[in-house]
Amino acid sequence: MKKDVPGPVHAWLVMMKAMQAITRYALANLQETGLGFSDFAVLEALLHKGPLPVNVIGPKVNLTPGSISVAVDRLVAKGLVSRAESSHDRRVRIVALTPRGKSLITPIFRAHAATMEKVFSGLSRDEIRQLEQQLKRIGKQAESLFDQSVTKSRSVKGRV
Questions:
Q1: How wide is the angle at C-alpha 94 spanned by C-alphas 146 and 46, nearest 5°?
Q2: Are 108 and 35 in contact (CB under 8 A)?
Q3: What does the pLDDT look like over 70-82, one tens digit per residue?
Q4: Positive or negative torsion for Cα 59, 65, 71, 72
Q5: What are 109-122's pLDDT values in tens digits?
Q6: Closest Cα to residue 86, out of 61, 51, 60, 57?
Q7: Is 147 exposed, middle or buried (0-12, 13-18, 19+ CB in 10 A)?
Q8: Which of 5, 53, 75, 123 could be stapled to 80 by a disulfide with Cβ–Cβ 3.0 to 4.6 Å?
Q9: Closest by Cα among 48, 33, 14 to 134
């Protein structure tokens, strides 16, 4: 019996299983640091992007407005980040790494980068670049389709 050529559903399943395995491995290494994943994600974003408004960090690290507020509160309490009013808009709160936060996240991120190097060691740099480009294309397509479905759903609800 001839096997069917794998299609999008199979590719999605393979991608999900790969992501689950990568995440399991990365989180196991991250647990040794004492940081949870959301705290790591916030600190990493601030390490690489610099000070950011709270409402910008949330979408970058895939946290809801309520969850990002709780995460920032936790990091402020630990002395890892500071939160201050924006000089341009008092409604905006800017979050920045403290020296203590930077000294904590820098070696943790280096170890995380080494972990990812191990995970992707079976691919050449060119293959990694190609994978990244393809995943970006798929992600943009999915985002566009999602936006279209949300817009369509809103217009249907408006007619009811």
A1: 70
A2: yes
A3: 999 999 999 999 9
A4: positive
A5: 999 999 999 999 99
A6: 51
A7: exposed
A8: 75
A9: 14
